[in-house]
Design goal:
The protein is built from eight helices and twelve strands. It has helices at residues 25-37, 95-109, 118-134, 154-162, 170-190, 251-254, 267-279, 291-298; strands spanning 44-48, 53-58, 67-73, 78-86, 141-145, 148-152, 192-198, 204-211, 221-229, 233-241, 255-260, 307-308. A hairpin with a 2-residue loop joins strand 5 and strand 6 (148-152).
Length: 310
């Protein structure tokens, strides 16, 4: 964990002027959006501005290793770039989200479309919560929204309570997935983000409650322009959705160790260490279709082998 440093040693992170983004920012943003929609946890990508040369690596989940980036060519005393972050797509929706997802789908079938309007979606969420609060024991739920009513009979409501993706029942699976998708949409309608940077001299700066790029719309991934002091040594970049579990639960995707000048990340040394780790765990059939099952069965963590980041 990094510690906030108070006093006069705080530096700004917002760029003092415009810059030309890395040409792959748009592609990377779309990648994170897709990843979130498929259940991917909140992750970050940092792409330095056009003209900066760099190499970047990441590690598998459960290795506990942060991303590594070497800045191999840059000019001036600051580094500008774009930090990209997506919502927590892996979170599971509960009963309120299953009611919300079902209500949105059924309203669409009668011509009431919410789409990516965040205010409209949150208004529907409020209507669903009101309907849930008004429901009595043993009754169903009736969601009223913009002149239409979605009636959820008791039998269906009971299934919503029991819904899981692992049930093996198609209806329960569908209801659970509606809830998960609705929760993603809630995050996309409400999220703000926090960014924390520690420069090589130990100074720590935070951006708090960074808004989504389009607060009026459902947004699964957000771009945050940054300006960092560029000096020899290691800079730590972290980011996470406000109110989430922050960085420790997913260091591999929410922390960068950025190196410039001194102490560059030695990828060949890391690869050799990974090979040694694999050799020490001969019970794992590394690099085969059996690797994942072997890891789960034995309780061994994945190989700390670096792979190229986006």
């Amino acid at each position: 964990m990094l510690t906030r440093v108070k006093g006069d040693n705080v530096q700004r992170l917002q760029p003092a002027g415009g810059f030309v983004e890395h040409p792959q920012v748009k592609q990377a943003l779309a990648y994170l959006e897709r990843r979130a929609g498929k259940g991917g946890a909140s992750s970050i990508l940092f792409l330095p501005a056009r003209g900066v040369s760099f190499d970047a690596w990441a590690f598998a989940y459960d290795t506990g290793l942060a991303k590594e980036m070497n800045i191999t060519r840059a000019s001036g005393n600051v580094l500008r770039g774009t930090l990209l972050i997506n919502i927590s797509g892996h979170a599971s929706g509960g009963l309120p989200e299953r009611v919300l997802g079902y209500a949105e789908r059924e309203l669409g079938r009668v011509g009431v479309h919410v789409g990516d309007d965040a205010k409209r979606f949150l208004a529907l969420r409020a209507a669903c919560n009101e309907a849930l609060a008004a429901a009595t024991s043993g009754s169903g739920v009736a969601v009223a929204f913009q002149g239409k009513t979605v009636a959820i009979e008791r039998q269906l409501f009971d299934k919503m309570r029991r819904a899981t993706l692992e049930s093996g029942d198609a209806t329960l699976f569908e209801l659970a997935e509606l809830g998960n998708n609705a929760l993603r949409k809630v995050f996309g309608s409400e999220n703000t983000y926090r960014v924390r940077v520690r420069s090589p001299d130990g100074k720590v700066t935070e951006l708090v409650d960074v808004p989504r790029n389009q607060p009026g719309k459902v947004e699964y991934a957000t771009r945050i322009p940054l300006e960092l002091p560029l000096s020899p040594g290691e800079t730590i970049i972290e980011a996470w959705p406000t109110g989430s579990a922050e960085v420790p639960g997913y260091v591999e995707a929410r922390r960068y160790r950025l190196h410039f000048g001194d102490g560059l990340f030695d990828v060949q040394k890391a690869e050799q260490a990974a090979l040694g780790y694999q050799a020490a765990h001969a019970e794992i059939r590394w690099g085969t279709p059996h690797e994942h099952a072997d890891l789960e069965r034995s309780g061994v963590n994945p190989s700390p082998r670096p792979y190229q980041d986006f």
